[in-house]
Design brief:
elongated, 445 residues, five-stranded antiparallel β-sheet, alpha+beta, six-stranded antiparallel β-sheet
């Protein structure tokens, strides 16, 4: 009753239909108070993350409620962990039961929902990052003082703190002016590494055991053991253990392979030209967007996405595209206009971008000067990072089959519940005990 009550009071509005992308007019209509329940929680209760991109999500703001949290903890204890298991399968229910809807600017928990046909839910904690401890951030610096810069809009003054969430390895900062979470690079993007942790075996095992199929198998085995089907129960247990062991072994092997694949490219020696220090050698993990890379004539594995601003490069993009023919990259043409470089290059902007994970076969500068490129994206924001994230967070496969299987299982559970209630009522009307035994069955007959 407690769970149903809170689920009925949830403030998360549901979209009618399954649009992949929402235009501005439709989105404003859905945000209106008449369109859904979300309007009564404020205009900034929800917004879009990665709007217009493939990884587009809806974000909803929630704040942890102490009394609800205490009731949920009591529910965990009284249900012997069953309620906690339900919340593990349904993360949205966890947020709706523990939190109350609020504006995103006041939220300490953000509920995420994909805008594709699957509508997968997840939630993230809102954290704060302090920039005051960084030596290269000063309160009077030009970047912080520039009112039009994105960094100025996400940094809270005067304590220089950034409010952010991390979704699928990418950090999003809260834009105070736009009232939404946005990608922010350079100062808070972290090191230029694509780190894939090797998942411990115990985590893989726990995740596999908590699968709904194995939980159903556990209850079935308990029922068969109660009915003295010992041989059948032991056989099911052995087959389930073997299946879990093979699955965990496969997942562990894939995790190790992916870790070794990306680890070797996290510390590539590069040369960077900076205004004060001049030309200096450093590891690629210290690169930030805006650094000027000096590309020498030797082969180099690109540790980041960069824009070629001088010279010509011949690049092998086989790791990303699978093509064996090298591609020629030309420098970005000089333009005195004020429009962004991607807009000025139209559809040919990829000819000027060196993507992370590709190998420079030959780099030729202008005259005696070496080829140069400006760092554009680092870490998981790069093309290689997107590829790795698609492996770590794949889209669900056979989701409809799985959903239909769950519905069929729920249907069987409903029939079993009706049969149990009917049997108990028949025994009660005939004055027969529900316990097992010859005398009880003879009395009922």
């Amino acid at each position: 009753v407690y769970l149903a009550g809170f689920l009925g009071m949830k403030g998360e509005p549901r979209l009618q239909g399954r649009p992949h992308r929402l235009c501005g007019t439709a989105w404003q209509h859905l945000r209106s108070p008449k369109a859904s329940m979300g309007g009564r929680h404020g205009e900034n209760h929800r917004t879009l993350l990665n709007e217009g991109e493939e990884a587009e999500m809806e974000t909803f703001g929630y704040k942890t409620h102490g009394f609800r949290r205490a009731l949920c903890i009591a529910g965990y204890i009284l249900s012997c962990g069953i309620l906690l298991l339900v919340f593990y399968w349904k993360p949205a229910w966890d947020v709706w039961a523990n939190c109350v809807p609020c504006d995103l600017q006041e939220a300490d928990v953000v509920l995420l929902r994909t805008t594709d046909e699957f509508h997968m839910y997840s939630w993230k904690k809102v954290t704060w990052i302090s920039l005051s401890s960084l030596d290269y951030i000063r309160r009077d610096s030009a970047v912080v003082a520039d009112e039009s810069s994105l960094l100025n809009r996400v940094v809270r003054k005067p304590d220089l703190k950034v409010r952010c969430i991390q979704v699928q390895k990418i950090r999003y900062a809260w834009d105070l002016a736009a009232s939404r979470f946005q990608k922010v690079g350079k100062l808070i993007c972290g090191p230029n590494t694509i780190e894939v942790e090797i998942t411990p075996i115990w985590k893989l095992l726990v995740k596999e055991v908590l699968n709904l199929f194995y939980v159903f198998q556990l209850f079935s085995v308990c029922l068969w053991l109660a009915e003295d089907y010992i041989e059948y129960s032991v056989a099911i247990v052995l087959m389930s253990l073997l299946s879990m062991a093979l699955t965990v072994y496969d997942l562990r092997k894939q995790s190790v392979k992916l870790h070794r694949l990306v680890e070797s490219h996290n510390s590539v020696p590069v040369k960077v030209c900076r205004r004060q220090a001049g030309l200096q050698a450093m590891e690629s993990r210290h690169l930030v967007p805006g650094d000027l890379l000096v590309l020498e004539r030797g082969r180099l594995m690109l540790p980041c996405d960069a824009i070629l601003i001088s010279g010509v490069c011949i690049v092998n993009e086989g790791m990303l595209t699978g093509e064996s023919i090298p591609v020629t990259k030309t420098c970005l043409p000089r333009d005195n206009g004020q429009q962004p470089w991607q807009a000025s290059c139209a559809d040919d902007y990829r000819r000027h971008v060196l993507f992370c994970g590709t190998q420079i076969i030959q780099a030729k500068g202008d005259g005696r000067e070496p080829a140069k490129a400006v760092v554009l994206r680092t870490g998981f924001n790069t093309a290689k990072g997107d590829l790795v994230r698609s492996i770590l967070y794949p889209k669900p496969m056979n989701f409809r089959l799985y959903r239909d299987a769950i519905r069929f299982l729920m249907f069987l559970i409903g029939i079993a519940g009706i049969g149990m209630v009917y049997t108990v009522c028949v025994f009660a009307l005939n004055g027969v005990s529900c316990g097992r035994g010859t005398g009880s069955s003879q009395g009922w007959m």
